[in-house]
Amino acid sequence: MNPLGIHALVWAGDIEPSSVELAARQTRAAGYQFLELSLHDTTQLDVDHARTTLAEHGLGVACSRGLAFDADISSDDPAVVERGARLLRESVDVAAALGARNLCGALYSALGKYAQPVTRQGYANAVDVLREVAEEAGRCGLGLGIEVVNRYETHVLNTAAQALRFIDAIGAENVYVHLDTYHMNIEETDLVQPVLDCGDRLGYIHIGENHRGYLGAGSIAFGSFFHALQRIDYRGGITFESFSSAVVMPGLCSDLAVWRNLWSDGMDLAVSARAFMQSHLRAAAATVRQVGS
Ligand code: MN
């Protein structure tokens, strides 16, 4: 079965040492194999402590981030592009030092509503920077997951088909597609064809409900999505992602548009999500074994 992970923001709003300890303890207790740490603010992160803490709990780690409007590699402005490139290089260093194998997310733009589509120059800038960053990441044994994000949170790419073209342009072995069911539900025609189109270029997954709350308490057709994963024999990590202002800090809540809360008990949510994903993975595997596709 695929390694299952959970986003640290289910447990704590920052990644200072006490929060990483809490997140690691809870992640383990809820039955997950790895923790995803967002690197959007690493000022409080003690990398050595985090690495040791994760190891003590027998957990793997993945890292994720988006960029910012003033540090954005999809900009036309070379100074803004350079600031974005610097954030990516720093994140590669931190992710590698933590022992991560994946650095994922909206690595190509800010995470927010843009007023215009990406320009030809901005797109080319993002491709060029990511080609360089991928080379550096590769030397650290790190892959880059290009998360497909909805139109209200990026202007660079909103579908798996666009992500595949973007990755073709980058042309690096260690760059792959990162799909998120929450975003797919907004942008894709269905939840099956994008998975089949990605095939072995799908490298990371976020599982989120349409409202980003309890899995199974919304409208996403998870059965067909997990069946599609089984059809391409997806072996990579699957991370549950959910946000509530019960945990997430006010600034980040605004970035993520967390205007109302779907939950307050992170442990109940996490255990429920883990059981939901395992049940879907088992059902899809048994079905494909039985009927062949
Ligand atoms: Mn996501």
The CATH topology comes to TIM Barrel
Low-confidence spans: pLDDT under 50, at least 5 residues? none
- In terms of structural class, how would the helical and strand content be classed? alpha/beta
Order of helices and strands: EHEHEHEHEHEHHEHEHH
Estimated helix fraction: 40-55%
Can you tell me the CATH superfamily?
Answer: Divalent-metal-dependent TIM barrel enzymes
N-to-C CA distance: 17 Å
Main sheet strand line-up: 1-2-3-4-5-6-7-8
**Distinct ligands:** manganese (II) ion
The amount of beta strand, in percent, is: 5-15%
The CATH first-level class comes to Alpha Beta
Which architecture name does CATH use? Alpha-Beta Barrel
Mean pLDDT: 96
Could you give the count of β-strands? 8
- Could you say how many structural domains there are in total? 1
**Count of helix runs:** 10
Cα-based radius of gyration, to the nearest Å: 18 Å
Q: Which overall shape is indicated by the principal axes computed on the Cα atoms?
A: globular
Biggest pleated sheet: 8 strands, parallel, barrel
